[in-house]
Structure formats: C-alpha cells, structure tokens
Amino acid sequence: MQSTPKNMRLHIGIFGRRNVGKSSLLNAITSQEVSIVSAQAGTTTDPVEKPMELLPVGPVLFIDTAGIDDEGALGEARVQKTRKVLDRTDLALLVSEASAWGAFEEALMTELRALGIATIVVLNKCDLGSPETSLIPRLQGLGVPVVVTAAPAGTGLQDLRQAMVGAAPADFFESRTILSDLVGPGDTAVLVVPIDKEAPKGRLILPQVQTIRDLLDHDAISVVAKEGDLRRTLANLRRPPALVVTDSQAFLKVAADTPSSVPMTSFSILFARFQGDLAEQVRGTLAIDGLSSGDKILVAEACTHHPIGEDIARVKIPRWLEEHTGARLDFQTVRGHDFPQDLSPYALVIHCGNCMGNRREMLSRILRCRHQGVPITNFGLTIAYSLGIFERALAPFPAALEIYRGTRVHQTLPAT
User: Fold this and answer.
1) pTM of the entire structure?
2) Minimal CA–CA distance to 39: which of 23, 58, 56, 60?
3) β-strand 264-266 against 243-246: which pairing, if any?
C-alpha cells in the first residue's frame, strides 16, 4: 500500500537556534530516533524529514532544520537550506530554551508571521530553567500559542500535539479536489495516459494516480486510455464524458480526437489549480508573446527525476516555445527545492504541476515571482498556448478563461 504523497501532507517545520533541542523534540514527538542528537551545536546539517499520522489532523511531514543562527561559510550554507524550508512550511514550531528567549527569537517570530505561517512557540528544556514571567502572557496576547516542554522526559508533548491540531491552517482541513467539481457523481472522465520512455515501468505517475483516486472518492467513473486509443474509447461510451484529461505532451492529438462539445484539459493544468494559483499562471502565460531572442527562461521542476530522451522540460517545451515565438531563448533548469531567491534575470518562469511539492511551496514561489515582477506559468499552460489550443484547454475553468480573454482584450485596446 502506498503512503500519502508529500504534497497531501501538512508540512510542519521545526526552527530555532542551534542546540535548543529541535532534534530531541522531533524524536520525542515521533517516538523514533529520526534525528541525531548531540550536545555539540550544529549536529543537524541538512533538513531531516519524517512523515507520520498526527490525529486528528491526519498525514503530516515534520521537517527538522539546522540552527538558523549557524556561523561560518558552511553554517551559512546550512542556514540557506533552512530558509528554503520556510517556503513549504504550513505550520512552524519555533523552539527556544525556556530561559533563553531573546531578540533572535523575536525576529524569527516576526519573520514567520510576516510570511503568514501559523506558528507555535515551544519553550523547551524547561527542566533546566524557566521562562521570564511576562513572556508567555505576552506571546499569547499576540495570538501565538505557547507550549513548555522538556523533550527527553516527555514533558508537555501532549500539550504540543493538541496545540498543533489547533494551530493547523483551516484550509488544510478543507477538502481540495483535483477535478471532482468538474465531474459529478456517476459522470465519466477519460484520462489519456501516454506510455513513453518517461513513463515509469509498471506504474502510473503521481498526478494520474491522484486524479483517479479523486474521481473514485467522489463516486465518478474514470476511464484510462492511451492517446492512440482515444477515438475508439470515446466511441465505446454510451454518452460523452464530462471531461477528457490528457498528458500535456499529447495535447494536439487529443484535441484533434476529442469532439469540440466535450471539455478537455491536461493533468498539468488541473494541478496548476490544485497546487497553486491558476489565475496568476494564466496571466503569466500571456508574457510568452513578449519574449525576445536572448531572454532567460527559468524552467522549474519540483521532482528530481533523471531526464531522458525527449525530456519535456529540456527538449519539448523549449522547442515548442521557440517555434511559437520565433525567438532564440536561453533556458535554465532548476529541480527540487532549488528555486532562486533573485528572479530578476528571467523574463518568464515555467513551473511543473508541482505534484511532488506542497501547495504552500508553490504559492510561495508564485508570490515571489509577483513581488519581483516576473511572470510565472506552468508546463501545461505553456504547451497549450504554444500549440494554439489555450482557450480549448481552459474551457473547463470559466473564471480562468474569462481572465485570459479580458487580459487579451485589454492588451489589444488602442492607447488613448
């Protein structure tokens, strides 16, 4: 049985100075030796992840980080990795020694709150000292939950679990769906799944699996076919499907084989909505028409698979985009959590559907692009636009389609 994918888990980041007991706290919460514990400061280097079930929240992912006050060249590299964890944190545990809360913790708490990250203050090592008398009432007055713990002894752990349940962002409990709002109970969705060199042997890729599960959870019917079998599949159905969903790489053939009366889109575009902000990425797609030779394009993949053959990020998208624009573009690729802080060199960011990341990280990247004035789109939107079937691919999403049409009208109006 497969475990819950990371992108469906509540991400709980553990932050604080070195040697305040972050790793001991994670080990105590999980009842496992997940992180190395030592009296020597700076034992934790790379972020350590631990998936588990936290009832009644459900599946969560704890991320233990290096001390954010680390020093030296190596320490600075550790701090940079810790700061990248902020982008994908839904709930932060800000850990301090109970008797050592100071300006550093105040600044870190201010930063977390400015990022909109729900935060719990954990005053650890209470067996070695007590917090200053006014600290807890002051933090609680700011709306910040405070828990006092001694991790190795288990003191305060139940209170911490309850605080995490109470502080978990409300939208985590809200049921987000991939496409069940588009395909009702008893309706059929045809999922077009090419089997090519990049298809994992003996299994489907994560977006396809999650889409099928979403349909099953909402009493809809999923029919899966290869692109060469789509016409025959549609002919075999007694009534047209509510939706056809394709891998973006097969867009043109699927668009040709799907009757215009049947809504059609791609897994990538569904995940632009499910994992990010479809409206913002639709606006970003329109920047394609303004690209010129020499422009730098950042292509971002959340996964770290080894590229092979006609790789979509390194071969197909660059080819289709250059054919559409007639421009010679400079493509740069990043993978995993390696997303640049400074986006100013880029004319456009093209992101994958982010099936391997969580929504918080995707929204953080979209927000960073917006703040720096760099348009962002995604693989499926880029492919549909480059191939001239953008409106067809957006038809299942009326609000996004209206944004596209409205923006295009605004762009073509003569100046007054």
Assistant:
1) 0.73
2) 23
3) parallel
Q: Domain 6-173 carries which CATH code?
A: 3.40.50.300
**Termini Cα distance of the chain:** 63
Comparing 11-15, 127-131, 287-291, 358-362, which segment has the lowest mean pLDDT? 358-362
Task: Find where tokens 């990371």 sit.
Answer: 6
Domain with residues 188-268, CATH architecture: 3-Layer(aba) Sandwich (3.40)
390: tokens are 């953008």
Give the angle 322-324-327 at the CA atoms, nearest 5°: 40
- Please answer whether residues 67 and 16 qualify as being in contact, where contact means their C-beta atoms are separated by less than 8 angstroms: yes
Q: Which of 19, 52, 51, 53 is nearest to 36 (CA)?
A: 19
Q: 193-220: per-residue pLDDT in tens?
A: 998 666 667 778 889 999 999 999 999 9
What contacts 131, CB < 8 A, 6 or more positions away? Answer: 98, 99, 101, 123, 148
Q: Does domain 275-412 have CATH number 3.40.50.11410?
A: yes
Q: Residues near 244 by Cβ (< 8 Å), separated by ≥ 6?
A: 189, 190, 192, 230, 234, 254, 258, 262, 263, 264, 265
Domain locations along the chain: 6-173, 188-268, 275-412
